[in-house]
Design goal:
Layout: E1 5-11, H1 15-27, E2 31-34, H2 41-44, H3 75-88, E3 93-94, E4 99-104, E5 109-113, E6 117-125, E7 132-133, E8 146-147, E9 160-164, H4 168-179, E10 183-187, H5 202-211, E11 215-217, E12 221-225, E13 229-234, E14 237-242, E15 245-248, E16 252-253, H6 256-262, E17 288-290, H7 305-308, H8 310-320
Parallel strand pairs: 1-2, 1-6, 2-3, 6-17, 8-15, 9-10, 9-15, 10-11
Antiparallel strand pairs: 4-5, 5-6, 7-16, 12-13, 13-14
Helix pairs in contact: 1-8
Amino acid sequence: MKEGRIDLLIIGGGPIGLACALEAQKAGLSYLVVEKGCLVNSLYRYPLNMTFFSTSERLEIGGIPFVSNNAKPTRAESLEYYRRVADSAKIRMKLFEEVTAIIPADGYYTVQTSKTHYEAENIVIATGFYDIPNLMNVPGEDLPKVTHYYRDPHYYAGQKVVVVGANNSAVDAALETYRKGAEVTMVIREGNIGKRVKYWVKPDIENRVEEGSIKAFFYSTIHAIHDHSVDIKTPDGIVSIDNDFVIAATGYQPNFSFLEKVGIALSKDWKRYPAYNEKTMETNLQGIYLAGVVCGGMDTHVWFIENSREHAKKIVHHIQNKNSYTF
């Protein structure tokens, strides 16, 4: 190999990117992780008090035990775990460095970043889907009072808060801000709380709505957002309520523009599934692989840490044995 060229460049320093690095390390491949934010950046941006749905052993990578105080680990425990994994394994990575382009060369790729460029024989894109929120596309969505990233309930104490959505993020935001003294109204597109809401939380939110502690508009959407109010489109027409803050827990999506810029084929339907081989995780571009939740396109409830950490093994095995694969 030419001086400075690596076997595998991994874009994304989340749990699955780290899993890929551990597998590459185990296989004796030269590798580098490039992450545009901090270590496990998406997990860092989760709400401060978040508890995972999965148990700790299902979040483990590289066979390294994850010990938590309770069966369901917290955000803080997960950050500590993945940091210790990265430190103990001495994973090679560049943080706060964004990949801006992948350029094919003669049998390898040049990867341009916000700071420099690298040459790599193979590339893994493990960028997740937490960076780009699904917008409501309504007037006023760009006001400072609107956020797609809920962090801490104390900020909303004593305020009139609208929470948009009915799944885990929305329910956590509604319950936590309510318990810090906010006047909470939920705006829910469907007729009920989401089926995927954590089983120990679902009865809590349903009871708060039923007793009227948290008001909920079902079969409803945001029509417009104003400085001191919100217009809600309900089955009975437009309802306007006083409002200080809007937490739009409307979900997120992968960076499709980056995938398209690279040349990865996407399905034509709304789910925009990226093309890849399920046995090897290789995309329509030779030597470029996908790993983790990015594989699901807009269907962001398909892949999680627990069922996509195996992608790392598939990728490294294929890199080591490309000539022996038949399909």
